[in-house]
Automatic annotation (TrEMBL):
InterPro entries: Tc1-like_DDE_dom. This is Mobile element protein. Pfam families: DDE_3. Residues 64-206 form the Tc1-like transposase DDE domain.
């Protein structure tokens, strides 16, 4: 209970001075894996150009790989209305569902080049075709080592996926992010850009239109590739985990 009444203007001033906006929120998930640092550290080392304490060579490549699932083709039931002065473009709200495609992508961390393909489904075989596409593409044909950073999706999960990739090509080193750590995967940033700049609003009438739009995005991106300026390193990770430790313990102790 407050001992005295506080005016709205006083509350507003206090919040403003403290730069606090309690009406805003974002979803967050604290790491619950006690081996989070052990699993995330090697990925951050790769982004910094090192592996097992040694600098990467000129023919070592780091590719961030993932699937963007279920990109729908939506045939709008009315033609769109183009933008006018003081009037935004208008997209018909009702649409027909004309199927969906899966977009599999490999992002070169150091060059910013993107390789991708569309598939009807995700899974081990579609992901394998993306891997084959990478292996056939210069400069990866002549690579010494190929580090593939992936999440824990079913297409490339666990130790069996590591063995499977090694059988495919002994130069491949499959590196998994910790669970609930997709933010460590560069290709997720690219997929976010793709969603905001290319797939929103979704006005592709059919699957071929989806394919064309994705292919054009790749071609335009690769004309002037720009790698992400990633600054978060292993030391930053340890500091972050130290700050999060009280929350980590609270989450571990919580029932359920």
């Amino acid at each position: 209970m407050l001992s005295r009444k506080i005016s709205r203007s006083t509350v507003w001033r206090m919040l403003h001075e403290s730069a606090i906006k309690p009406w805003q929120h974002e979803s967050w998930l604290f790491p619950r894996d006690p081996l989070f640092a052990e699993k995330a550290g090697p990925i951050l080392d790769l982004y910094a150009g090192h592996w097992d304490g040694q600098p990467l060579g000129p023919k070592d490549f780091v590719l961030s790989m993932d699937e963007k699932t279920s990109i729908p083709a939506r045939g709008r039931k009315h033609e769109e209305m183009p933008p006018e002065p003081h009037q935004p473009r208008r997209i018909e709200a009702e649409y027909d569902r004309n199927g969906a495609l899966q977009y599999l992508a490999a992002w070169d961390v150091r060059s910013g080049m993107i390789l991708g393909r569309c598939e009807r489904t995700t899974g081990i075989q579609p992901f394998g075709r993306l891997v084959d596409q990478v292996l056939a593409q210069p400069p990866y044909v002549d690579a010494t080592r190929l580090f593939f950073v992936v999440d824990n999706g079913s297409s490339h999960r666990g130790r069996t996926s590591v063995v499977r990739m090694q059988k495919r090509d002994t130069r491949i080193v499959l590196v998994h992010t910790p669970i609930h750590a997709r933010w460590l995967n560069h290709v997720e940033i690219d997929c976010s850009i793709l969603q905001r700049k290319v797939l929103t609003p979704n006005d592709c009438a059919n699957l071929e239109a989806v394919r064309v739009r994705l292919r054009l995005y790749e071609e335009l991106s690769n004309r002037t590739p720009k790698p992400f300026n990633w600054k978060f390193n292993r030391q930053d990770l340890l500091k972050w985990l130290k700050r999060a430790a009280p929350h980590f313990l609270a989450a571990s102790a919580a029932p359920g």
